[in-house]
Amino acid sequence: MTRAELTQNILRKKSYLCVGLDTDITKIPVHLLKAEDPVFEFNRQIIEATQEYCVAYKPNLAFYESLGPNGLLTLEKTMKVIPENIFTIADAKRGDIGNTSEMYARTFYDYYHFDSVTVAPYMGKDSVTPFLREGKWVILLALTSNAGSMDFQLSEICSPVTGKEEKLYEHVLRTSQKWGTAEEMMYVVGATHPDLLSSIRKIIPDHFLLVPGVGAQGGSLQEVSASGLNDHVGLLVNSSRQIIYASSAEDFADAARNEAKKIAAEMNLILEKRFS
Amino acid sequence: MTRAELTQNILRKKSYLCVGLDTDITKIPVHLLKAEDPVFEFNRQIIEATQEYCVAYKPNLAFYESLGPNGLLTLEKTMKVIPENIFTIADAKRGDIGNTSEMYARTFYDYYHFDSVTVAPYMGKDSVTPFLREGKWVILLALTSNAGSMDFQLSEICSPVTGKEEKLYEHVLRTSQKWGTAEEMMYVVGATHPDLLSSIRKIIPDHFLLVPGVGAQGGSLQEVSASGLNDHVGLLVNSSRQIIYASSAEDFADAARNEAKKIAAEMNLILEKRFS
């Protein structure tokens, strides 16, 4: 999917919501456990209920892998019920030496047909560029939403590029934006750092940001949108647990729809203010 | 497996060789393609041929994942033919927010029964500690063997711990060694940086190091061992392609055995000099 198509989808649906499919078999409604593949049945109903209100789905690979090979079969089936025009993100946080990143790229692009993969930057350029491919997207970790983002991402480094002190995540942004264009790279910036979003936008004005951490992790949609939106929208805001576990009873899909609808309505107002 | 057990295995076998199972279906001998599961058949024969000369096996997850759910079935079967007393490493380079790293830990420890997982440090403490578990090991990336290790790992940062300038990988070593003991954490240090191994040993004198990059990537076993060995040996040196693809003909297992035997013989001499 191209950036223009993604932006069009957002403006048409009036939503930049990404629904995180962190489906945990111990958290899904009990009545689904009778299904042949409970996690798939849960995902199928969540996707059916929320697709009107979101523009992206983000399966979290760990949740599927923890069930062994069958979990990956569930992922494969899940990918097939996501509508063609909805952007898909393999939230996998991969990154390895070149020949290995290339294998991961084949996994997510060729086998499961994802549009994008989240990638960790620690191993540098040759661990990231194998994920660049026409029509596909690298979503590179910059500043994550967790407490551990303070341990290294916020370390002050002396930049060999600018000669000035900057945080490691800023160095990652400045360095990596030379590896690919804003038409093929996005960045993960957690909603738990809204104060830093404006300065991030100065470094990468054009790129899409994938923003986790709204909802269960405490980030605010209003704050993120105020500093994060750019002229092509440039934001995908993820919500996982708040939507998919909105109810643990038989009405889980309706509850998820309502939650997604509520967030999309808030996004609609924000987009109207900015783009009309 | 405890550190004492690992050290004992090394001294008994007179080898600190780890064989990397980066099994690529396009590179295995053609006659195996008739087997029901060619990658498993290749692994089974490689393991049978090399187990006398190595103390660890390191399947590279990307190679199995690229084949979809069936690739993970192959991994599962492969794990079952690795002898109990050989250390197993899931080379997965994972790391995510706490609940997700916990899912990955379950994947590799509970489902596939690995002894250890390689973990990327970028997301900090709460992305790493879910992999700490009794009898299991976190193998944290410090200084990797690829060219991209220069991009961020060698960046100069102003350490909040020491107040002095240090490289990012040194900061990762100093910070992360407070998260777990040398009985449950190891570090990845690429053989392509032999000049830095002595200073790494000053920061982490006790930890085991997993050293990739000998062989195909150009690192030297002699150099790595001279600066890397400590009083509990403290080294696992990995070789993948050099061993498993030593021959692409029907004699591949014999060729792999000879290659492993040759490396182990060199290790034997090094260990005799140091530990007798």
> Helices and strands of chain A, in N-to-C order?
HEHEHHEHEHEEEHEHEHEHH
Q: Identify the quaternary structure here.
A: homodimer
Can you name the CATH architecture of chain A? Alpha-Beta Barrel
Low-confidence stretches of chain A: none
Rg calc of chain A: 18 Å
- Silhouette of chain A: globular
What is the straight-line distance between the termini of chain A? 25 Å
Q: In total, how many beta strands of chain A?
A: 10
Greatest interface: A-B, 62 and 63 residues
| Structural domain count of chain A | 1
Percent in helix of chain A: 40-55%
Write a short abstract of this structure.
Two copies of one chain form a homodimer. Chain A is α/β, with parallel strands linked by helices and 276 residues long.
